[in-house]
Amino acid sequence: MTDTFKPTAAMADEAARGLELREKFKRGGTAVGVARARDLKNRRNLSEDTLKRMKSYFARHKVDKRAKNFGDNENPSAGYIAWLLWGGDAGRDWVKDKVT
User: Fold this and answer.
1) How far, in whole angstroms, is CA 70 from its chain's centroid?
2) Deepest in the core among 18, 43, 48, 74, taking most CB within 10 A?
């Protein structure tokens, strides 16, 4: 049996905020990011493979944090919304702790 990992409440909150911002501003994230956000928001158990994909996402997209309006909930960058869809900083830190 494979291990599964339950997302934290903080990750669920970040993903929910990302979904709300995406709906409001009509930008940010892909279909994969939206699906990940739904899993996180609902705190569905994740596989180790999913954790590896999350770690890879955060490694590739850490540069998005330098963009204008990253972290701005009034006029968020697309990268900020996408980052939230993947669990935000809480997701990044959690995955870093789980996947070596």
Assistant:
1) 14
2) 18
